[in-house]
Design brief:
The protein is of the alpha/beta class. The chain is 43% helix and 18% strand. It has one domain: Rossmann fold. The relative contact order is 0.15.
């Protein structure tokens, strides 16, 4: 597995947990502690998935998502909003500004992996096929 995931999360403990969880499953993980850094890293690194906290200092996750979708270079990156804001209106707002999925905190490591894998499979349905069958 060679997919790259950018985690934009201002809470160091949460960022470490998500990074550890994803790394153990073979993903390459980079992190950003605020929105501006996250946008810059997304534009430079073009990750496969961005895991995006909603409540960030400066620019919130909704605005980051909107900006990533508006930029032709980053518009197709998969975005998972990951937030303690668990009300339906927050989820709806996240999806309306362009998130592909919304996961409420706290989430079990298995839920994070399952959600990321689900997003990647939707983007590339051949991911679930054995290596020797992909691309045929």
């Amino acid at each position: 597995m060679s997919e790259t995931i950018l985690v934009i999360e201002d809470d160091p403990a949460t960022a470490r947990l998500v990074e550890y969880t994803l790394s153990r499953h073979g993903y390459r993980v980079t992190t950003a502690a605020n929105g501006l850094e996250g946008i810059r890293k997304a534009q430079q690194g073009l990750p496969d998935v961005v895991i995006l906290d909603v409540m960030l200092p400066g620019i919130d996750g909704f605005e980051i998502c909107h900006r990533l979708r508006a930029d032709p270079a980053t518009k197709d990156i998969l975005i998972l909003m990951f937030s303690a804001k668990a009300q339906e209106i927050d989820r709806d707002t996240g999806l309306k500004v362009g998130a592909d999925a919304y996961l409420a905190k706290p989430a079990a490591p298995d839920a994070i992996i399952k959600t990321v894998e689900g997003l990647l499979t939707k983007r590339d349905p051949s991911r679930h096929l054995p290596e020797n069958v992909r691309g045929q």
